[in-house]
Amino acid sequence: MSLFYESFKRSRFIGSTKEGTIFELTLLAILLVSCGFGFYLARHCDGQVALHFNLTGEVTRWGSVKDVYKETILTSFIAIFVMLCAYAPNSIHMIVPARTPRQVALKVRAARVVALVLGFLPLVLTLAMTRQVLLPVILLVAVVLVVVSVFAVMIYRSE
To answer: Which of 1-15, 90-104, 107-121 has the lowest mean pLDDT?
Structure first.
């Protein structure tokens, strides 16, 4: 662990680890399944998709199937970007600062877990757009908030 922290202090970037590779391969698998299923849903919808909902869940703006493909690619890049942020822990801002090697490791792991959860974002948004199902979107946001909260508490307690 001290080697990890020393390399972090010197360069502000961390190198590749076995844990990081496992997280990255898992994200790749999640994104492949999520995007594949999202493209399948888009291909089999009626031509119009919901782009915006009001607070009561009614559709207020419609779009074309091309919008599903755009959102799938964009949200995939968001998950990949969050995973890459784990290599630069200074770019990860949490309410609790990381001062010890254990806290830095938890901060990196938090970014990787959030990236895994965001890997389901293309599928969840495609479901919302093609089937007008909002519950998975709400659940995904709740899971991200819970993960960030749990890791913030873990970082705070590891001082």
So the answer is: 1-15
Closest CA to 107 of 156, 141, 140, 144: 156
Residues 6+ apart with CB under 8 A from 63: 48, 49, 50, 51, 129
Residue 68, token pair as written in the block: 């599903």
pLDDT for the residue 20: 87
Nearest alpha carbon to residue 71 among 53, 49, 89, 86: 49
Residue 60, SS3 per DSSP: strand
pLDDT at 93 over 90: no
Place of tokens 């999520």: 34
Buried b (16+ CB within 10 A) or exposed e, 115-152: bbbbbbbbbbbbbbbbeeeeebeeebeeeeeeebeebb
Both tokens of residue 98? Answer: 């990381």
Q: How far apart are CA 95 and CA 97, in angstroms?
A: 6
- Residue 16 CB burial class (10 angstroms; 0-12, 13-18, ≥19): exposed
For residues 107 and 82, the answer to whether their CB atoms sit within 8 Å is no
Instruction: For residue range 50-88, list pLDDT tens digits in order.
Output: 888 888 878 888 888 888 888 889 999 999 999 998 888
